[in-house]
Amino acid sequence: MSHSEHEKIARSAVASVNCGILTISDTRTPETDTGGAIIRAGLEGAGHTVLRYMVVKDEPAQIVDIVRDFAAAGCQVIITSGGTGIARRDSTFEAIDALLEKRMPGFGEIFRMLSYQDIGPAAMLSRATAGVFQRSLIFCLPGSPAAVRLGMEKLILPELAHLVWETIR
């Protein structure tokens, strides 16, 4: 079966996805969370449902607890923004990576390649990652609105139905 046939089957089988959005930031609030708003608009614009949304401080134990809660609540996809850099307080990568049962290294690789086209060598600072935890897909994006938009528009939304189909079949 060709890649396009495979995707066509997935899109017909998965019309709408239940999602969770987790913004990880020591400074953002729900009112100032531009990245979270971009994620929500993209998901809802594509016909998906946002079941959970939260802003949390960059504390690994809290991140893990919330991701576990989102997965248990039926979020087939969990998208995080923030905490993926190398600053002292950036702990999203470590918290999420410890949960992942399957990793999708291609997501981070392609994200950094696309980001490089926009911001140059600073793209290497991103530890954007993705994988599967308890049949939920998790995508970790940087916190900048431009990075969130890039990840959503170029990678996540175009392939979301296919990825979910792969985790449920």
UniProtKB/TrEMBL annotation:
Domain MoaB/Mog: 20-163
Cross-referenced InterPro entries: MoaB, MoaB/Mog-like_dom_sf, MoaB/Mog_dom
Keywords: Molybdenum cofactor biosynthesis
Biological process, per Gene Ontology: Mo-molybdopterin cofactor biosynthetic process
SMART domains, sorted: MoCF_biosynth (SM00852)
One Pfam family it belongs to: MoCF_biosynth
GO CC terms in record: cytosol
Keyword Oxidoreductase annotated: no
Keyword Protein biosynthesis (UniProt): no
CDD domains, per the entry: MogA_MoaB
Pathway: Cofactor biosynthesis; molybdopterin biosynthesis
Function in brief: May be involved in the biosynthesis of molybdopterin.
NCBIfam families, per database record: molyb_syn
Family: Belongs to the MoaB/Mog family.
Protein name, per record: Molybdenum cofactor biosynthesis protein B
